[in-house]
Amino acid sequence: MITIDDKKYDETKLSDDGKAALQNIQVLTQEQSKLKVKFTHNEILTKHYLDILKSNLPEELKEETK
């Protein structure tokens, strides 16, 4: 059973093209989920490395007066 636009359908009654489309949608949805996890992971790592970088910065350079 699949639900599309709040309506339930029996996926076993789909045509071959319909079954292929459903399979492609399922694959794409799985890939999107993996990408969301990877994006979140990258955000966390970026913040982590930025914190490390900030803690290792040299003193701020003072502008010389001319």
Overview of the molecule:
- The protein has one helix at 16-55, and strands at 2-4, 7-9.
- It is mostly helical.
- Strands 1-2 form a two-stranded antiparallel sheet.
- Strand 1 and strand 2 form a beta hairpin.
Task: Provide the fold topology.
Layout lengths: L1 E3 L2 E3 L6 H40 L11
Antiparallel strand pairs: 1-2
> How many beta-strand runs?
2
Q: What class would the helix/strand composition place it in?
A: mainly alpha
Quick one: overall form?
rod-shaped
**Count of discrete alpha- or pi-helical segments spanning 4 or more residues:** 1
List low-pLDDT spans: none
Distance between the termini: 76 Å
Mean pLDDT over the residues: 94
Q: What topology, given as strand order, has the largest sheet?
A: 1-2
Strand fraction: 5-15%
Task: Give the fraction of residues assigned to helices.
Answer: 55-70%
Radius of gyration: 25 Å
The largest pleated sheet is described as: 2 strands, antiparallel
Order of helices and strands: EEH
Key features of this structure:
single chain; 66 residues; mainly alpha; two-stranded antiparallel sheet; 2 strands
Question: What's this model, at a glance?
Answer:
The protein contains one helix and two strands. With 66 residues, the protein is mainly α.
